[in-house]
Amino acid sequence: MTCAQPVTGTTGIRWQKVLYERQPFPDNYVDQRFLEELRKNIHARKYQYWAVVFESSVVIQQLCCVCVFGVIWWYMDEGLLAPHWLFGTGLALSLIGYVLFDLVDGGEGRRKSGRTRWADLKSALVFITFTYGFSPVLKTLTESVSTDTIYAMSVFMLLGHLIFFDYGANAAIVSSTLSLNMAIFASVCLASRLPRSLHAFIMVTFAIQIFALWPMLQKKLKACTPRSYVGVTLLFAGSAFGGLLSISAVGATLFALLLVSISCLCPFYLIRLQLFKENIHGPWDEAEIKEDLSRFLS
Amino acid sequence: MVLKAFFPTCCASADSGLLIGRWVPEQSSAVVLAVVHFPFIPIQVKELLAQVQQASQVGVAVLGTWCHRRQEPEESLGHFLEGLGAIFSHEPWLQLCRERDSKFWSCKATYQQVPTSPGAHSEDQVMLIFYDQRKVLLSQLHPPAALPDHQAGDATASACGLAAVFDTVSRSKALFRSDQFDEGLVRLSHWQSEGVEASILVELAKQASGPVCLLLACLLSFISAASTCRVFKLWPLSFIWSKLSTCEQLRHRLEQLTLIFSTQKAENPSQLMRKANMLVSVLLDVALGLALLSWLHRKDRIGQLADALVPVADRVAEELQHLLQWLMGAPAGLKMNRALDQVLGRFFLYHIHLWISYIHLMSPFIERILWHVGLSACLGLTVALSILSDIIALLTFHIYCFYVYGARLYCLKICGLSSLWRLFRGKKWNVLRQRVDSCSYDLDQLFIGTLLFTVLVFLLPTTALYYLVFTLLRLLVVTVQGLIHLLVDLINSLPLYALGLRLCRPYRLAAGVKFRVLEHEAGRPLRLLMQINPLPYNRVVHTYRLPSCGCHPKHSWGSLCRKLFFGELIYPWRQRGDKQD
């Protein structure tokens, strides 16, 4: 590169990285100090293994939710589980959860959101009434549609629920509304296959409890009492595994493998891969506005 | 510059004399209107010209001399004619001359005072154009339609020149009023000089038309006053009037008749043509209607029709019942919601049951009704056709009802599904910004929305099928009605008088002219024959179309499909109010 040769200045003119002064150097000239500003991996974070495992429990919880829902539906469809019993258990667990929801943070969240107990009662009444009113319609809704279509649709919707669920990541794909709606759609589809309208009613109620109410309680437990959250997760995963085992051993084994790989292998792999990370930063980067612009906007 | 002299062919055999006409300086053309024969007294010629000028507002003047040499050339006549130029001074002074055997024409245009070379007679080149005075007088020139830009300037200039010629001839009718049998002071030669063209029938009709028009106008004003009576403006009646195409047609005809028999004179030729078109259309309509009436009342055809009508209506209802029973099963192997299917099917079956009992209640009176309706054909075929369209609408009222129920249900579902689909994705429609925004819903809203969404999604195929079937039936009826309306519109709006004129007297409607070369020799003036180009038929229809009563649908195909998809109601008619905005 002949063009980059400096005019070997005997006068000792130092090259400056400015455009507003005429300098005796070619345009593409840089001197020795060029790479001094090179930075590597400034945004890379060091992860602790157990912290990552703890964070992955959200995924585990959601997988278990879907699994438990499927298992319960299977039991209902086979007639092994009486709807009254499921309703009673669900109601009791919901009441416990409701009490816990306020106890965990000492009523802090309720005061912040300004939501009254009357509003909670109204919501609950709306759920129960509408589901009960619609349950005969739901029962006959998909009579003429083939069972395979319903299964395929439910699986598709539940997968969608898992994909769009808000696991705490800040991504464009996350939409908790869509995720919840897909879960409800799947539950209505599956409920319409059950033998009686009471079954359908209780199935949809259960779906609300497990897909809408339980994640809210989970979030609060995780924030306030991490220890109990770990316990609850383990208990939940164990019960899901047990339920699945009673239906199919192969399914249970696969499910357990999935859980273990997500909670143990994936964090390990993440930390290993962090070592290969090599991001370089320097003056050639695009400009980034770091300053808070909100004061200009107001 | 070439000077154009328009010369009437009827004057070609006239005796020598003076050329009377108009000089159009913009086009440098002279339009010769008539020839004044010898002998005359110059003062009287000037008086005549002044009278004509006052009557017609056309600058008629003596343009030059006309010399028809039947015998040996007379030198003295030539000198005399030249001398006339001094009496009737005109710039330029035309000297037209025809030799014995009509083969040789000569034409000169001289300027007596030319500033560049004073004293000398300067001559111009002259182009002689013959025209048929009668045809040009009677024809109406239609300016050409808009042309592409590069031709437009040229075309408008030549069109202006032509228009000036046609205008001059048509406005100087006062000049043609005297014929050779008049004991006038000045003898003229023009197209009517052999005798005024007229017919006794036309004159009689002209005389009679005044009182007849007055009488009919009175009668019509009575009828229209009765029709605007307050009783007919009450709510249910006015609504029914606006929906029945018979009423629209009658109103339209009444308006036309009022216009035809109005005692005011038509101001311009296009208005006159409009009146004539309307009159011919009404006459033809009534004639066809009478033919239909005579056909109907021969051999008791009305009775046969009435006997056939009830079984046909029964048959239609029966077919509909079969269709509904088919829909209530598993039509074409479709997955329908059984409960909803049964509900809808029974609802519609009950409707058909009601309909059949209504028809049977009506059946004894149908013959009498038809007989009275048949009488209405004497008001015109269009009225009879409109009544037929209304009868079809009344007899297929059940189909219309089914269609409305189906469309409303379907529309409700489509609207609900579209807004619930937005809720399903966590979005909502922002009416202020006309766009879809994201929105955070409450848990119970989400739950109820999704529940309804699921229900609607699974019920949609059933509703859509019912909607589809009844829409197809409805479209069939609408198509039949549309064809009838199209026929009525055709009779209403076709300019039959103008078309007849174009067929029998093509020169009356001129689109332009064409020139045929009669003689083109060096040293002699170019002689052309101007012939009238008739207006093409499509332009005749386009120019003189009568306004129809606007009962035909104005949907484009795209908007029709869109409306059908979203379940909006479609109608074969448009109300008068809608048409304006």
Automatic annotation (TrEMBL), chain A:
Q: Transmembrane region positions?
A: 49-76, 82-101, 121-138, 150-169, 176-194, 200-217, 229-247, 253-271
GO cellular component annotations of the record: glycosylphosphatidylinositol-N-acetylglucosaminyltransferase (GPI-GnT) complex
Keyword Aminoacyl-tRNA synthetase assigned to the entry: answer is: no
Going by the entry's taxonomy, the superkingdom of the source organism is recorded as Eukaryota
The protein's matches in InterPro entries, at most eight in alphabetical order, are given as: Plno_GlcNAc_GPI2 (IPR009450)
Q: Which UniProt keywords apply?
A: Glycosyltransferase, GPI-anchor biosynthesis, Membrane, Transferase, Transmembrane, Transmembrane helix
Any coiled-coil ranges, and where?
A: none
Describe which pathway this protein belongs to, using the record's wording: Glycolipid biosynthesis; glycosylphosphatidylinositol-anchor biosynthesis
Extract one GO molecular function annotation from the record.
glycosyltransferase activity
* Location relative to the cell: Membrane
Q: How does it sit in the membrane?
A: Multi-pass membrane protein
* Biological process, per Gene Ontology: GPI anchor biosynthetic process
Similarity-based family = Belongs to the PIGC family.
The protein in question is named Phosphatidylinositol N-acetylglucosaminyltransferase subunit C
UniProtKB/TrEMBL annotation, chain B:
What GO biological process terms does the UniProt entry carry, in alphabetical order?
Answer: GPI anchor biosynthetic process
Membrane spanning segments where? 278-296, 343-361, 373-396, 445-469, 475-499
InterPro entries found in the cross-reference section: PigQ/GPI1 (IPR007720)
This protein's UniProt keywords: Glycosyltransferase, Membrane, Transferase, Transmembrane, Transmembrane helix
Q: Which GO terms describe its cellular component?
A: endoplasmic reticulum; membrane
- Return one GO MF term: glycosyltransferase activity
Record's PANTHER family?
Answer: PHOSPHATIDYLINOSITOL N-ACETYLGLUCOSAMINYLTRANSFERASE SUBUNIT Q, PHOSPHATIDYLINOSITOL N-ACETYLGLUCOSAMINYLTRANSFERASE SUBUNIT Q-RELATED
Protein name per its UniProtKB record: Phosphatidylinositol N-acetylglucosaminyltransferase subunit Q
Origin organism lineage? Eukaryota, Metazoa, Chordata, Craniata, Vertebrata
